[in-house]
Amino acid sequence: MAGQDTPVDPAKALEFKEKGNKCFQAGDFVAAESLYSKAIDCDPTNPLLYTNRGLALLKLHRFPLAITLSQHAISLSPPPSISMKAHFQLAQAQIALHNPSSALESSKLAHKLCIDEIVAGGKGGGSIGPITELVLRCKKELWEQREDERLRKRGGLLEECARGLERERDAYVSVLQAEEGKEEDVERVKERYGQKIEELRRTFELAGAVGEEGKRRKVPDWCLDDITFSVMLDPVVTRTGQSYDRSSIMEHLKRSPTDPLTREPLRVEDLRPNLALKAACEEFLEENGWAVDW
């Protein structure tokens, strides 16, 4: 992806990168993206430069190119922290282009890399919140996409049934019209089938209201985080047996290194994954994407 005539010069690449950082911080994303591009030309094997340019492209809403840059950064087998950023950016671009399925996979990989970095003592803690939010957004948009498809199919079934009644009506009418003096019968058949079609449409509408919109939506208590009261994505359990979402308990521990329930000392190292609860929460969210906004 580098310019063919540009000699490899890591020191020059660093200069362009620093200039790009200053432009980015000043909100000049066009200039920043251009400088990061020049940096890549000088050092095309440095994955950090691709994530820097990718972030500028996200700010400029140039999502297809941001996807290409993120994927190239990943292909360079970067350190986990840079791989996490690349997957995070990839997911942001994919969801912006309304591809929630791919975005969910990318964001989940970013989430896993973030946790791995935290466990290894890295700086991933600052990214866990935004990445968790993105995973939940992707889950919700994927559910909404599936719901739209389900509703389209239901609407297609309604129209198919209605057309069946119309064909049946037209067949009766054709027989009656072949005979003389059946005008009143024709009108009665048309009226009767008109009522049937209207009743069919009302039945479908009622079924939708009762089956989905009219159903009382409630998130079970076991699925909720006791700090944010949101649905948990990655539950972890403390020494006292209480579960919290990883992002919310880590945010709490930044402010106060204590157990939210007992106020006893608590460290990140004391948290353990609650795999059974995680599986249950994932299953609930897959079937109830609306719960993301609970």
From TrEMBL:
The reply to whether Metal-binding figures as a keyword in the UniProt entry is no
Which GO terms are recorded in the biological process aspect for this UniProt protein? cellular response to misfolded protein; positive regulation of proteolysis; proteasome-mediated ubiquitin-dependent protein catabolic process; protein polyubiquitination; protein quality control for misfolded or incompletely synthesized proteins
**Catalytic reaction equation(s):** S-ubiquitinyl-[E2 ubiquitin-conjugating enzyme]-L-cysteine + [acceptor protein]-L-lysine = [E2 ubiquitin-conjugating enzyme]-L-cysteine + N(6)-ubiquitinyl-[acceptor protein]-L-lysine
A Gene Ontology cellular component where this protein is annotated is: cytoplasm
The record's Pfam families line, in alphabetical order, gives: TPR_11 (PF13414), U-box (PF04564)
Q: Which domain of life is it from?
A: Eukaryota
What residue stretches are annotated with the U-box domain?
218-291
Print the keywords alphabetically.
Isomerase, Repeat, Rotamase, Transferase, Ubl conjugation pathway
Asked whether the UniProt record includes Glycoprotein among its keywords, one would answer no
- List the molecular function annotations (GO) for this entry: peptidyl-prolyl cis-trans isomerase activity; protein-folding chaperone binding; ubiquitin protein ligase activity
Extract the PANTHER family matched here: E3 UBIQUITIN-PROTEIN LIGASE CHIP
The protein, known as: U-box-domain-containing protein
